[in-house]
């Protein structure tokens, strides 16, 4: 059994990553979604342990001190981090792991584990992104402006990712992500047992 691969999926807040990733998880077998820890408040409908592990700042700092995170970053005033142990356990069981993380975290994971595949999910346009963020209704106008500004900065790093997917339509975006994951498993280094024989 091959060890699973890790896939970073980054993209501006409001781009629709959660919708796309949920549809991807429903379609593909053997995929583990890494639940991040965060110090931000839960939004309506978000459950602890399902969408995020919601921690207070002191607990988050303790996890940092105990080296629990594969990566962590501050984003628009809150901490977010990927607990390492679940990622490693899933990969050991042959599962692919999805990390829905922003650029600073993506850089940390890539530098520690260069074989990680990174995918940037972009909105079809800035006006569409603003519309989606406003319609979501979860952030104040000031927070929305901060997220938009941050999205523009992140967009300038999109060329450093291995793949670039535009979420103009959920079905198309899911199909492209699915294809990327399948293609990564068709690399010769993933099939060395067959190539080199028994
Ligand atoms: P939101 O507050 O909208 O759920 O997430 C804000 C941003 O934080 C998103 O870009 C999301 O990808 C990112 N994020 C979520 N979890 C993590 C994490 O564990 N690490 C890092 N670096 N970013 C994360």
CATH homologous superfamily (4th level) name: P-loop containing nucleotide triphosphate hydrolases
The bound ligands are:
guanosine-5'-monophosphate
Enter the CATH topology name. Answer: Rossmann fold
| Total DSSP helices | 8
Q: For the CA atoms, what is the radius of gyration?
A: 17 Å
Order of strands across the main sheet: 2-7-1-8-9
Structural class: alpha/beta
Top CATH class = Alpha Beta
CATH architecture: 3-Layer(aba) Sandwich
Largest sheet: 5 strands, parallel
Instruction: Report, as a whole number of angstroms, the end-to-end distance.
Output: 14 Å
Plain-language structure description:
This protein is α/β, with parallel strands linked by helices and 198 residues long. The mean pLDDT is 94. The chain has helices at 17-27, 57-65, 84-92, 103-112, 126-136, 141-155, 170-184, 192-196; strands at residues 6-10, 31-33, 36-38, 52-54, 69-75, 78-83, 96-100, 117-122, 163-166. The protein is built from 8 helices and 9 strands. The structure holds guanosine-5'-monophosphate. Guanosine-5'-monophosphate binds next to strand 5, strand 6 and helix 4. Residues 13, 36, 40, 71, 73, 75, 80-82, 100-102, 104-105 line the site of guanosine-5'-monophosphate.
